[in-house]
Amino acid sequence: MNSTGDIFQQLAELDRIGAAFVCVTLIAAKGSVPQEIGAKLLVTKSGRAAGTIGGGRVEAAAIRHAAGLLETKPESPCETVEWNLQRDIGMTCGGVVTLLFERFHRNAWPVVIFGAGHVSQALGRILATLSCRVTVFDSRAEWLAELPAAPNLDRRHFDLLEDAVAEIPEGAFVAIMTPGHRTDLPILERILKTRRFPYLGVIGSAAKAAALRRELREAGITGDLEQAFRCPIGLPLGKDSPEEIAISIAAELLQVRDNPS
Predict the structure, then answer these.
(1) Do 14 and 139 belong to one domain?
(2) Per-residue pLDDT for 106 more than 80?
(3) What is the CATH number of the domain that holds 235?
(4) Are β-strands 21-30 and 40-44 bridged in parallel, bridged antiparallel, or unpaired?
(5) Rounded to two decimals, what is the model's pTM?
(6) C-alpha dihedral, 176 to 180 to 183 to 187, nearest 10°
(7) Among the four 3, 44, 84, 109, which has the fewest Cβ within 10 Å?
């Protein structure tokens, strides 16, 4: 198990990259309990990240409770629970624990990527080192599996990627880079009909941008489509390798984040 120093080091790293996580602290205890007051447990969307509040059933229950806090939007970032280990958890010891659940980075900078292909893989590795929360949607499980394992990167499988539009968090920066025009268009159309985001871009050329805007107008989407989304995306730098394209896109995301028009 992690030492206290390791736990705080891991907490600092999760905080630095903007990962959503819950810190669980044992703040009070009565009777026979499996850990001392002050014990800590860190939980991300992937499960236990560091620390322990005693293992076994009580820790499993705490991880489930923390996971629920990460999936919902509680009014307060903190809450306490009191569990009788025998009655509430099903353990043989009859102690009582009070746990403090602290949720971090409810409002971390959200970046959403549609498509987990080569450029997305490179972009995911860059963004995973930054203070943001990245979600990648794809219909191909094998490509999602290739994304870097990082506590601030979430992989989501959808058979129809346009159905994932409702799952995009408010205020997200959205980059569409699916395998091609035919799969990009339904996502872009759904977004423009239902949502608004501070950054919306589609990977591709100027010719692709013209084709997208023509087909969007044919689908009944009106207004200034030149301003509705960016295509091509990325700053004008680097060459055409996935890694250098990803750097140019990451640079543009940061530029828009820090200098909103």
Answers:
(1) no
(2) no
(3) 3.40.50.720
(4) antiparallel
(5) 0.70
(6) 20
(7) 3
Q: What is the DSSP letter of 253?
A: H
Give me the DSSP letters along 16-67.
HTT--EEEEEEEEEESS-SS-TT-EEEEETTEEEEE-SSSHHHHHHHHHHHH
Q: Same structural domain for residues 88 and 173?
A: no
What is the helix, strand, coil percentage profile of the chain, to 5? 40, 25, 40
Question: What is the domain range of residue 89?
Answer: 4-104
SS3 68: helix
Which is it for strands 133-138 and 78-84: parallel, antiparallel or unpaired?
unpaired
Per-residue H/E/C for 168-183? CCCCCEEEECCCCHHH
Q: What pLDDT digit, counting tens, does each position of 153-191 carry?
A: 999 999 999 999 999 988 899 999 999 999 999 999 999
Longest pairwise C-alpha distance within the chain = 71
Pairing of strands 40-44, 47-51: antiparallel
Domain count for the chain: 2
Could you tell me whether strands 133-138 and 153-157 are parallel, antiparallel, or unpaired per DSSP bridges? Answer: parallel
Q: Which two tokens stand for residue 171?
A: 């205020």
pLDDT at 105 over 90: no
Q: What angle do CA 193, 194, 199 make, to 5 degrees?
A: 90
CA distances (Å), 43 to each of 50, 59, 60, 73, 126, in order?
7, 11, 11, 16, 23
pLDDT tens-digit readout, 24-43: 999 999 988 888 999 999 99
Average pLDDT, the chain: 91
Residue 18 has pLDDT above 90, yes or no: no
Is 196's pLDDT higher than 70?
Answer: yes
Report the interhelical angle of 206-218 vs 181-194 (nearest 10°): 50
What is the DSSP secondary-structure string of 133-150? EEEEEES-HHHHTTS---
